[in-house]
Amino acid sequence: MVRAFTVPGEPKGKGRPRFNPMNPAAHPRTPEATLVYENLIGWEYRRQCKGGFPEKVPVRMQIKAYYTIPASASKKRKQMMANGEERPTKKPDIDNVVKVYADALNHLAYHDDSQVVSITCEKYYSEEPRVEVILSDAEEEL
User: Fold this and answer.
1) From CA 91, how far away is CA 100, in angstroms rounded?
2) What is the per-residue pLDDT across 19-60, written as a single tens digit (0 to 9) for each?
3) Contact (Cβ atoms closer than 8 angstroms) between residue 71 and residue 127
4) What is the DSSP letter of 115?
5) 59's torsion region: left (phi>0), alpha (psi -120 to 50) or beta?
6) What is the pairing mode between strands 2-8 and 59-68?
């Protein structure tokens, strides 16, 4: 079983939780921008994939995040970036990219994110910013 989908646009990471300083007992809340991005991820998954993984099936997650090539880069650097010879070392951190995708697909692509047993995430440059995600049964060979 394999589910693959693409989220167009610049990759984003999971935002830090926000706290209400006036009420220390209140629960932390997710930033609005993160909620909007998680909703986009879920919408693209539902649009491009049919159904999810059954409960207790181990899931492998592969993420490729493609960032915009900076306009300020020289022609030589732009070519290197397009060829994958120079990779992004900028924000968001790769672990925050993984977290936003794992959380957004929870209860949608899989019953619980504890089913995810393997994650691969890579960052690249591209003229077309996007995030490509492949979910597969970890017990099956690719």
Assistant:
1) 14
2) 666 766 667 777 788 889 999 999 999 999 988 898 888 999
3) no
4) G
5) beta
6) unpaired
Q: Could you tell me which residue, 16 or 125, shows the higher pLDDT?
A: 125
Distance CA 66, CA 37 (A): 16
- Distance of alpha carbon 125 from alpha carbon 135, whole angstroms: 22
- pLDDT digits over 88-140, tens only? 998 888 999 999 999 999 999 999 888 999 999 999 999 999 999 999 988 87
User: Rounded distance, CA 124 to CA 85, Å?
Assistant: 9
Neighbours of 80 (CB within 10 A): 16
3-class DSSP assignment, residue 126:
strand
Enumerate residues 6+ apart whose C-beta is below 8 A from 10.
Answer: 67, 68, 129
Determine contact, residues 6/65, Cβ cutoff 8 Å: no
Q: Give the list of residues 6+ apart from residue 48 with CB closer than 8 angstroms, or none.
A: 4, 5, 6
Q: In the chain, which residue ranges form alpha helices assigned H by DSSP? A: 32-48, 75-82, 94-104
The one-letter amino acid code at 133 reads: V
